Amino acid sequence: MQRDLFTNFFIDSFKHAWKLFFDPLYRETQILFLRYGRVSRFTRIEIRTSQGTFMVGDARSFLFSFREIFLDEIYKFKCESAEPLILDGGANIGLSIIYFRKIFPNSSILAFEPDPEIFRLLKKNLESNNILGVDLRNEAIWTEDKELSFCSDGADGGRVEASSPLKVSGVDIKRVIGDKRFAFLKLDIEGAESAVIPHLKSKLEQFHKIFLEYHSRIGMKQNVGEVLSVLNDAGFRLRIETLDANGKNYDLQMNIFADQESESRTKS
What is the pLDDT of residue 220? Predict the structure, then answer.
């Protein structure tokens, strides 16, 4: 047992050293964590990186998002078209949009971010990084067109919450989608996916690939089984990664990667 622990430690240390030396983006990510990891929470600060310059509202959430999006490439997908249509639900300050334009420079992107202050940062970041032609909506993806109560945390955890005084515009995502076909759907909407995915049941065939971050709120009914069933019934092959729940708002978080099983389906 001790030998196994020592061996694993040695292997992990070697991999870390190798990446520091040979992988510039891994090295940059480590440096960013060292430089900004102790910045006080919810402090607005400009961070310059090889992927762009970002005005952020919270360094900690930015660092973890930067690592997931640019280093781990959790939103990476293949597409036969050089001009895929992408729906970004929960665009936050724009890292996902900049990544999508990095892998598909000619992509068309429809992006939603309901938090008014975060939306201002989103627009600023796209402008400062010369990302043009993105259809930005300061609205929340929802099951109907209605005003919603929204809790803003100043970072990446803003969510629909009935007791919050802040009001935002919710939009019926089925109406927005219409008959359009999308290469990729990214949903990181802090719990609203529990209502949105079942609502999209009749429209899911219009998406070729889906990334969904599932959140289970403490004290509320879990419907992960229903969400997975809806995706499975729509013909998606699923891969799931369980994340560490932050313990404050959620008791379960998962990344769900969904890919249409039939390659003959219409691609964007």
Answer: 77
